[in-house]
Amino acid sequence: MVIKVENLVKVYGPIRAVDGISFEVNKGEVFGMLGPNGAGKTTTVEIIEGLRTQDSGKVTVLGLDSQKATKEIKQRIGAQLQTPSLMPSLTVEELLEVFAGFYDKSLPTEELLEIVSLKESRRVLVKNLSGGQLQRLSVAMALVNDPEITFLDEPTTGLDPQVRRSMWQVIEDMKAKGKTVFLTTHYMEEAERLCDRIAIVDHGKIIALDTPRGLINSNFKEQAIQFELDPRPSDDILLSFPGATSVATDLNEVVVYTKDVPATMSAAIKYAEMNCSPPQLKDLRVRQASLEDVFLKLTGRKIRE
Ligand SMILES: Nc1ncnc2c1ncn2[C@@H]1O[C@H](COP(=O)(O)OP(=O)(O)OP(=O)(O)O)[C@@H](O)[C@H]1O
User: Fold this and answer.
1) What positions does the domain ABC transporter occupy (predicted)?
2) What is the 204 CA–ligand 1 centroid distance (Å)?
3) Residues enclosing ligand 1, CB less than 6 A?
4) Does residue 305 belong to any structural domain of this protein?
5) Ligand 1 pocket test, candidate residues 5, 10, 11, 43, most atoms within 8 A of CB
6) What tens digit of pLDDT does each residue of 177-211 get?
7) Same domain, 39 and 52
């Protein structure tokens, strides 16, 4: 185990930003933390990184007390900061070299540029980079010291799908090298694909922690039928469809979780014919429950509201 968090608490005035969190992260795993805005993710991560102090509880990183061995821990971990633009007049490679100077050991700049596909932009000034390039630069900065644990805070937010996929590859490559990655993300698909285990955080507490499959299986034995109807039927009507066990709704969109897909579907079709305009289910899909469904069920919210 490379991170151990025990009963962590951080209070800001009336807000219990972190309210008694405990978990462990194993060596070589990609560990994900998911939660709505304000759930306490950044506070937790920054305490682990030694950037903030806790009010109570204990955090051990690589066997060291995070409050006492801050210097040594910083040499051995990598943290993605959202601030590469702090030195706007340096080129990409100059900035990476400045950062390398902060550490006892570092990866060659060439290798870092290769990892995040920024070789062609090496001589571009930081202030002239696009949002996606800045994002990749911030990941390269997190990797400068070839860290044993890398903390990535929403590393693919704002990236186009192709660059996002290349970032996933970077994370998968780190894992293949036996490195530990601590990831916060708002993208369920990303968490489901990359993370070995995921902690779902809400109101400063961990409300679920398991593998993506485990989270789905323990919350849903059912399949999901998704469609749009105008007007949308009430939850009570949806729950009266045979086989239906629970529902989630948003505007005209309906998700009915069911043990009996054909029975629920035919009740829904019949309902639409009698009550709705157009009298059909729009954008109808039948699917297995996903991590997004788990998140919605546990927190009562979509990840971005
Ligand atoms: N320095 C601070 N001073 C006062 N309140 C703070 C401070 N930092 C965080 N908070 C509060 O603590 C709570 C948790 O914030 P935190 O940034 O950890 O959440 P988060 O899960 O990272 O959210 P996001 O997804 O929006 O980044 C929020 O209510 C926030 O307003």
Assistant:
1) 3-228
2) 9
3) 12, 15, 17, 35, 37-43
4) no
5) 43
6) 999 999 998 888 899 999 999 999 999 999 999 99
7) yes
